[in-house]
Amino acid sequence: MPVDIRLMRYVVAIAEEGSFGRAAARLHIAQPPLSRQVGELERELGVRLFERRPTRLTAAGEAFVESARKVIADVDRAVARTKAVAGGAVGVVRVGYVVSAAYEVLPRLQAAARKQAPGIRLDVTETDSAALAQGLRDGRYDLVFSRSITDFHRLSVTREPLVAVISRTHPLAGRESVSVRELRGSRLLLSEHHLPRYREAVLTAVQGILDEVVNTRIAGWRYSDELLDSRTITLVPRTLGDHPPSTAVTVRLEEEPPAADLQAVWTTDLSPPAGRIVELVRTIFD
């Protein structure tokens, strides 16, 4: 027969207090209704759970209390988890990011989430901005970090200059910094996966200096490891330039032209856990 969880709590309280009166006070109910309901439970079960005067558990009562404690603990955990999920404290948040977010921004968010939202797991994926924008539209991502998505809700998280990444065989490879005009004679390598806003920032930085642009279909910026030669350069945000491929070096541009801001981007329809992570992003970067 099914037993109300409330009655299980009553029986456990009586067993722990050793008295119907003290159990009633603990449960904030009157003693007569407590005694009556436990008596009805005993009649339905067909066993005595307690000896009276003095109050003590029978063998059947000890078995009941042992099982009841486990049931109560399971129910309490289920209730707590349900409330935690509804409140955004537990769940999975799908985060997409461009490679330049991997070195500073994403680790900061992950560290903060582990500390302030330990019940939320961040499922992270690196890809290019075009794929991130489409993933937001398709509902594959809850939050992304990108430099050029113009739709959705956005928050700038970093603002930094562009730097030049060049081959170790480039004539300027031994310099710590150069003027943009000194890049004349080089050609610019630019991925077709960059969205218009990012491409505009890069092309504006070298406007009137570089006439030749080499477009590549390879996503991200790791194409530079394969395609950089003694004439070709790429312009990347400083964070990314701090980690050049093995065949290249980074040279600071004296004019420090601005890169497109790295932004956190999300949609309106957020799950409670995703909403909590977005608020965490606001706290960290706003």
TrEMBL record:
Protein origin, superkingdom: Bacteria
Residue ranges of domain HTH lysR-type in the record: 3-60
Any one Pfam family match given in the protein's UniProt record, by short name: LysR_substrate
Keyword Transcription regulation: yes
Keywords noted in UniProt: Activator, DNA-binding, Transcription, Transcription regulation
SUPFAM superfamilies named among the record's database cross-references: Periplasmic binding protein-like II, Winged helix' DNA-binding domain
Keyword Transcription regulation: yes
PANTHER family: HTH-TYPE TRANSCRIPTIONAL REGULATOR CYNR (PTHR30346:SF28), TRANSCRIPTIONAL DUAL REGULATOR HCAR-RELATED (PTHR30346)
Family per similarity comment: Belongs to the LysR transcriptional regulatory family.
Protein name per Swiss-Prot or TrEMBL: LysR substrate-binding domain-containing protein
Organism name: Fodinicola feengrottensis
Taxonomic lineage: Bacteria, Bacillati, Actinomycetota, Actinomycetes, Mycobacteriales
